[in-house]
Amino acid sequence: MTRRMTLAFLALCLSIPIMLAAAENLRLNPRLDYASDSHDGPLITGDHLEDGAVPGRPNYVFMFGEG
Fold first, then answer.
1. Between 46 and which of 10, 26, 32, 51 could a Cys-Cys bridge form, CB atoms 3.0 to 4.6 Å apart?
2. Is residue 52 part of a domain?
3. Is residue 5 part of a domain?
4. Which residues contact 20 (CB under 8 A, 6 or more apart)?
5. Residue 19 has pLDDT above 60, yes or no
């Protein structure tokens, strides 16, 4: 019974990443001006950024600094 439960748990863990949606084509904003402290728009852009946050699931947040 223990081996069967272990295999079921392993199958569940391996199938979870398939169900998760993520942002794609992440890139830095090409108009960033590193010489000034001005606001140049979003620092990171990409596709499907709004699909990343899903209620009831863990959401990963990238922290970065400017200045």
1. 26
2. yes
3. no
4. 54, 57
5. no
